[in-house]
Structure formats: structure tokens, C-alpha cells
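Handout for the seminar on molecular recognition.
Each group receives one record of this type.
Step one: identify the two inputs.
Step two: read the structure output and locate the region that could contact zinc ion.
Step three: write two sentences on what you found, then compare them with the reference statements printed after the record.
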Amino acid sequence: MLFLPQAKPEPEESIYNAIDAVEFMRDLRKLQQRTKCGNNTCVGFIKLFEQHLGTKANSTLPKSFAACDKALKAEAGVKCLELHGCTNCQRHVFAPGDKTSARCPECGAGRYQADGKPNERVFFFPIKGRLQKLMSLPRYYNMCQHEFERPRNNNYVTDVYDTPAWRKFMGPVTFPIQRIGLQFCVDAIPAFAAGTLSLKPAEFINLSLPPSERAKSENILLSMLLPANLPKGQSQKKYFDFIADFELNEMATIGIMPDRIPVKVKIFSTSMDTKGREELTGNVFVGGAGA
Ligand SMILES: [Zn+2]
């Protein structure tokens, strides 16, 4: 018997019509996070599915991650802002909404180079919106009650809550919690394969979470990406001062979640070495490396 090749029948209705496009892209982002593959690879796979599973004309799949990312950011309260700092007086940071000021109001120095690029650029991810969203999740909110609920014994120091510094700075714990403590951390990392320190992420760890949850990457709040080569002294501190004015002071005094019981957010920042202290305080220490 002779089988003649037959034209592949077109499906009457594309499979894509049954797919929730946003849900699909969200799952693809999760897979991408696990496998570390790039955006182009993912979009390549979508095109491959389109070829084999249905007609392109009927496809409802998005052609990029833009819409998915927008929905995810809104859901998570995530924003990314670009900050420019003055490299002359090292005291001024241009507000994220200020696109027009070309000169530093403190010293008059230029903000941009001749090619239009800013002299100094930092990426800033405000934490207030994210914390507000996280605290509205029952699971996260309940985890923040750990300090009150944990077993304790006044004769033992079993967690940061038992230290005099915590007790003095944070005050007594209540149920439900009315203040949480965040630890601010900055250190340089090699972000690229060049093997050199290229970026300094500045992030917050929520010490009010149980110890097993504090250091998980999904619970660390990234605040800024600073260049690793900023000069010593005031150059980094101006950004720390900026985020204090932008959101941290308000979070500490007024708190977050005004629709429920407000939770004040207190910030710890400390350094275990001289170099770190220089960067945190903006002072320059004179002496040997081990001083
Ligand atoms: Zn200046």
C-alpha cells in the first residue's frame, strides 16, 4: 500500500487560546530563574512552540517579557529608579524624578559628561512598597511575630533579640508586632566573569524573621547597586543619606501599613572592619589595614 504524504491539518482552534498568557510567562520566568538562561533563549522557545503546536495567527502568547514583568513588579511593589550623584562635592544626589537639572545645586559642578552620560550612576530599588506588599501576605506577617512567639530563657542569649543593643534600640516586643528590625549590609561582588569586584549591592536583612528565613535570597531586600570603585569618604555615604531621606526615616517614624496597625521599621547598620566603617560613615581612617 502506498502512503501519500498529506498536508498537516491546521488545528481548528489554536492551543494558545486556552493558555493564560500572563500565567505562562510567569512560569517561564520561574524556569528561567532556575536554569539561568537568557531572555532570547526563552523567546526562541516560544517561537518553537508556535511552529509546532498551532498557527501563529491564532497565538496569544506575548512576544516579550515586558507585560509579564510589569504585572509582576506591580504585584510585588517593585520599582527601579536611577540615581545620579555629584562627583565633585560628593554631597548631592539628584532626585529620581529630576531629569532637567544639569548642575549640582551645592557646588555648581556638571551632572553629565560630554557624551551625555551621567558622571555617577546608581540603581535604587525602594524597599517601602515591597515591605508593604510582603507584610500584607499572612505568611510573611506571621513569620514576623517570631520574636514574640519563640521559646526563650532570660539566662541565655539565643538570638539577636537577647542582646542589650537590640533591647535598647528596639524596645519591648508586642503581639501583633509593631516594629521590625532590618540589618543594612553592603559589600562588593564580582558581578561579571572578569574576576574583579565590580558591583556593591546594598541590601537589608529582616532580623524579625525566624533565623531560618532571614538569609534566604527571596527574603533579602535589595536597596541599591553601587559601583564598586567609588572613592573613599563621602562618595557612598551621600547615597546612604539619600535613601534615609527618601524612605527610611519615614518608615522608622510613621511606619508601614497605615491601614492596619502600623509597623515601624528600624534599621541597624554596623561594620566589623575599619574599611567597612570608613564606607559606612564617610570618614577616612588613617593607619594600617589591621588598625
Ligand atoms: Zn556638588
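Reference statements: The two ends are 91 Å apart (CA to CA). The first helix runs from residue 21 to 35.
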